[in-house]
Each structure stands twice: as structure tokens, then as C-alpha cells.
Specification:
alpha+beta; elongated
Length: 262
């Protein structure tokens, strides 16, 4: 009853939403009777709401059927436009973690370091866990290399002049020439696998995330123990899912009206 919902409750809004929810991917075109049955309204009430939505451009109508128009997407667009990149990425990261049972994360480049802005932990015991806000040297991480590879050549040149390529493990990339060669490879293949560079036993797999202009604004990654899989299995089982996840994040982010870096 309306009184149970509070005196503010507007029943006509509830009825209108029930009409909109009557439509679904497998029921995209409905007759008046079908809309009335699905929404729980009588035919007269459903008809008035449908014709109002037709006048407003949210529903189209032929001789017998009603269907939603693309104008209803503005509601989802308004929602996405208020969300930050980490918020947009999180459900996609959660999906990837469920599929792979490994930690996933999103990071941005800040100076010579990457900064984790979203992270979903692995459900495994003794799994890798890196909190949001953690920073690591870009040259020693998979996400750092994905981000550096996305920089304009002239900007990358300036960055490398001042970057301290510190050796964190025996496997860390420590020369400018070696790093440039690796970044060229990342640009060509669209992903990067980094083994034991930040920490012995840690493997990172990353892919870039681009905005509507094609600029790399973040990187998404999967972190796992390097002994848990071969590079061949990573390329076969993890890379395609990771790249697809980056693509889905990009698609959602590009619906935003303006660029948000964080």
C-alpha cells in the first residue's frame, strides 16, 4: 500500500516504471494486453501510460505492438556519467576474478609509479592481495608497462630521462634500451606479461584501457603466482579474458560525457 512506503510515494511513477519493466530482450515488442498483464495494470491504465511514453519519445507504436526506443538509454547514460573509472571497472573486475579465481586490479600512471585505484581479491587462500592506493615503480610492473607503452613517444622520452630504473629483483628491467624494446612489443600485441620483476614468484598480466580518443588512461591486470601456470597457458586462458575485460570497461567508460581520470 502507498501509505506503507511513506506519504511521499507517487503511485503513478510506480505504474510507469512497471510498464517500462514489462519490456525485456526476449519481449521487446508487446501488445497492450501483454503490457497490462506484465505490469499488473488494467488495459486502460496501461494504455494511457504507453501513449504518454509514445508522446515523450520513449516508446514507439505500430498498429498492434509497442516497443521501447533508444531514448530510454539516456537514463543509463546519466547513471554512467556520474560514475568514476574505478566504479565502472569494478563489476568487470569482479567478473574476471570469478572466471579466473585470481586477483584483478585497475591502476593509473602517476609520475614514475602506478597507483592501484580498484582491486578485487582472489578467493584463493594465500593469494596475492594489493590494497587500493598502493604504488609501485612503473618499469617493474605489467600495468606500468601497459601505461608507459600508451604514452606519446615524445612524452615517453622525457619520462625515461628522469626515471629511476631500480633493480628490485634479478629479473627487473633496468636499462632504457630493454624497456623501450618491451614497450614496443606491448604496443604491437596489446598486452604484457611480467614475471618476477616486482617480486620473485609474482606474475602480472596487463592490458591497456583507452578513452574515446584512443588515449591510454589506465591498465587492468591479473596477478598470480608465477609458478601456478606456464606462459603458454597464460596466453591461452588469461590474456583473451583480460583483453575482453579491458574492452568492456572502455565501452562503459566511453558512454561518459567527459573524461574522468580517477
Amino acid at each position: 500500500m502507498p501509505e506503507e512506503r511513506g506519504g511521499h510515494f507517487v503511485r503513478s511513477v510506480e505504474r510507469t516504471l512497471s510498464v517500462l519493466r514489462a519490456f525485456s530482450p526476449d519481449r521487446s515488442e508487446l501488445t497492450l494486453t501483454e503490457v497490462a498483464q506484465a505490469s499488473g495494470l488494467d488495459r486502460a491504465g496501461a494504455r494511457r501510460i504507453l501513449l504518454t511514453l509514445v508522446d515523450l519519445g520513449y516508446v514507439r507504436h505500430d498498429e498492434r505492438h509497442f516497443a521501447l526506443t533508444s531514448q530510454v538509454l539516456e537514463f543509463g547514460y546519466a547513471y554512467l556519467s556520474t560514475r568514476s573509472l574505478p566504479q565502472i571497472a569494478e563489476p568487470h573486475l569482479r567478473r574476471l576474478t570469478r572466471e579466473l579465481r585470481e586477483m584483478t586490479a585497475l591502476a593509473v600512471l602517476e609520475g614514475d609509479e602506478i597507483c592501484y585505484v580498484a582491486q578485487v581479491p582472489s578467493p584463493k587462500l594465500l593469494a596475492v592481495t594489493i590494497p587500493v592506493g598502493t604504488r609501485f615503480p612503473a618499469h617493474a610492473t605489467s600495468m606500468g608497462k601497459a601505461l608507459l607503452a600508451g604514452m606519446l613517444p615524445e612524452h615517453l622520452e622525457v619520462r625515461l630521462r628522469s626515471m629511476d630504473l631500480a633493480q628490485l629483483t634479478p629479473h627487473t628491467t633496468t636499462t632504457r634500451e630493454q624497456l623501450l624494446a618491451e614497450l614496443a612489443k606491448v604496443r604491437k600485441q596489446g598486452f604484457v606479461i611480467s614475471d618476477d620483476e616486482l617480486e620473485e614468484g609474482l606474475r602480472g598480466v596487463a592490458a591497456p584501457v583507452r578513452d574515446a580518443d584512443g588515449k591510454v588512461i589506465a591498465a587492468v591486470n591479473v596477478s598470480l603466482h608465477s609458478h601456478s601456470s606456464t606462459e603458454e597457458s597464460v596466453r591461452r586462458d588469461i590474456v583473451p579474458r583480460l583483453v575482453a575485460t579491458a574492452s568492456r570497461i572502455e565501452s562503459d567508460f566511453r558512454l561518459k560525457p567527459a573524461h574522468h581520470s580517477r
